[in-house]
Amino acid sequence: MNDTTFNAADEDQWEGTLEEALAQPWASTEARQAYQDAFVAVLTSTQHLIEAARSRQLANDLEERWDSANHEAKPVRPFEKGSGRL
Description:
Blueprint: H1 3-8, H2 18-23, H3 29-67
């Protein structure tokens, strides 16, 4: 858009976020759909990034627990003498 067109439409312009724009009444569903699709794409991408970061953090936390110096493997003896019912 050139400056002349931009300045001529000055009265019809307002500033706001995409979220605010989507909350406004639109002339038609078709006019709104492209912006709504873009908004949903950003939300979906952000959600995937958050879930991936959470998974990485959980994996790191579990790995730290297993690798910690406090963890001592205790052998399991299911038929240890003296501990059974027989």
